[in-house]
Automatic annotation (TrEMBL):
Annotated Pfam families: HTH_18 (PF12833)
Coiled-coil annotated residue ranges, if any: none
InterPro entries according to UniProt: Homeodomain-like_sf, HTH_AraC, Tscrpt_reg_AraC-type_HTH
The keyword Transcription regulation belongs to this UniProt entry's keyword annotation: yes
Keywords attached to this entry: DNA-binding, Transcription, Transcription regulation
Keyword DNA-binding on entry: yes
Name the record gives this protein: Helix-turn-helix transcriptional regulator
Tree of life domain: Bacteria
GO MF term set: DNA-binding transcription factor activity; sequence-specific DNA binding
Residue span(s) of domain HTH araC/xylS-type: 201-301
Amino acid sequence: MASIQRLKTISEFHRTRGLTPPEHPLISIVNYAEVQMLPEYNNCQWVFDFYFISLKKNIAGKIRYGQQSYDFDEGVMFFIAPGQVFGLERPTEAPSNKSGWMLLIHPDFFWNTSLAKEIKKYEYFGYAIHEALFVSKKEEDTMMGIIKTIEQEYHSNIDKFSQRIIISQIETLLNYSERFYNRQFITRQRAGHQLLDKLEELFVAYFKDTEPSNGLPTVQYFADRLNVSPKYLSNMLKALTGQTAQQLIHEQLIELAKQKLSITNLTVSEIAYELGFEHSQSFSKLFKSKTNLSPLEFRKSFHPN
């Protein structure tokens, strides 16, 4: 099992990547072509105590995106928040033409700014490494322009405006990233619809193969089996259907409940138990919120006598 290395400071990141010390203790932009992973860290998983945003090109190997694999022949962006465990499999020989940048930001840099809280609204920090953002050449250029502005600011003489300007540029980068992720959901709809089909198959299998005592199916349960993170699954489904993963699970539960109410003689409590609810009242409340009818009222509409 790979060891986990925790890096508390940006200076530690520079040291483990064979880089000169950073100019600023709380923010750094690294040229990916200059990164040389020290041999003792080749088979590690990592936890950073700072934000890590990167755009890389020409990385040897492949990356999984949802249910598919893609070559690293285009710009790929990663977003990692403090405290997340991650790892990348690396080949023995690093490619000579690798390029890109890494933006490292310690949370303390956001102190007393709007991003101290606002950065948590960018859900893609919760995506797994195999749900990276693939960007076009035009999108790469947009990001590179922002990175150059940030770099210019912290290389210049720091004044009272520096932090505010850098923060605004980081916020712009994050907003563009959100736009590009949304574009990715739309342009990769074929993969998204395969995900949707697989989700429905898993839902059917859940009630066929599991005991009611296992409880209600969760977003985490389906995300694990689809090899995606819960946040990514919800955002992909939101882009495709207008509903989150939890909303779709509830919709499927209601459809299954309707079947049982219309074609079986099971009591409401028995149906609730079969669907994984601990209390029939919770089932009835959900059913009424989705149909405007209680389970018994719905059944009566099928069996008026």
